[in-house]
Amino acid sequence: MLTRAEIDRVVSAALAEDAPWGDVTAQAFVPASARARAELVAREPGTFSGGDVFAAAFALTDAAITVTVHRADGETFSAGDVLATVEGPARGVLTAERVGLNFAQRMSGIATLTSRYVEAAAGTGARIADTRKTTPGLRAFERHAVRSGGGHNHRHSLSDAVMVKDNHLAVLAASGASTTEALRTGIASIPHTMRVEVEVDRVDQIPAVLAAGVDIIMLDNFSLDELRAGVELIAGRAIVEASGGVGLDTVGAIAATGVDVVSVGALTHSAPAIDLGLDIQIESGTGGS
């Protein structure tokens, strides 16, 4: 999902946003001949993500800058660890600094939070998955970060999987068709390779959904007892996903009910950025500014 083309497209847009007519401070006060060596240093422990994105911020600013990343995405780090080294023309290093840091901090924050959810659900067999509650334009970056933290991705977009939610069911009910009939009609119209997920918010909705032959049933905002009842009723005839009300303090108990997947919007919409710093040493050169 996180291809080189996607990285270059998004990072280029971020650089253009941050310095649309160039970095006037660097151009006015930093000699053109000055070189810099900088280290990406962790101020707190976490899980790393976004090494290629961090490097792209500098490479797209000045091809003469080299970046050596010392941690692979998904690796943990401690406070004080050097995660990457940047070397090259000082003007370019200073210009790209903020954009590179923003992406590395954001992605590593998501990876770190995800790893905590995965750890809290360890031993249950349930996957921790993200949702579409991502920052517009940054979905590929944020979902890559979820994987760096040991999580899994839900459908990437509205185009690659069917998910019939409560509002869809309300429209179907207004048409007069039964839930089972409406779902079967819809399933018949899509490719056989496409999975179908249906969201329910009550246990008594499950039999009609099961009868339609869907692949995944989402149990939304169910209590722990209701989740266990739903898992027992579905009895392996569909993948069971739990959603709603999931936090670090509840995910373990939810995962232990026997569901297959726990989807967590907080992985992307509420992850705090990790505190990373770029410590720079400038070597003065000769020549004009």
Topology, element by element:
Blueprint: H1 4-18, H2 24-29, E1 35-42, E2 46-47, H3 51-59, E3 66-69, E4 76-77, E5 82-89, H4 90-120, E6 127-129, H5 139-148, E7 162-164, H6 166-175, H7 179-188, E8 196-200, H8 206-211, E9 216-220, H9 224-234, E10 239-243, H10 251-255, E11 261-263, H11 266-269, E12 276-283
Parallel strand pairs: 6-11, 7-8, 8-9, 9-10, 10-11
Antiparallel strand pairs: 1-5, 1-12, 2-4, 3-5
Describe the structure using short key phrases.
elongated, 4-stranded antiparallel beta sheet, alpha/beta, 11 helices, 289 residues
Characterization of the model:
The structure is a single chain. By secondary structure, this protein is α/β, with parallel strands linked by helices. 40% of the residues lie in helices and 19% in strands. The protein has eleven helices and twelve strands. It is elongated and about 75 Å long.
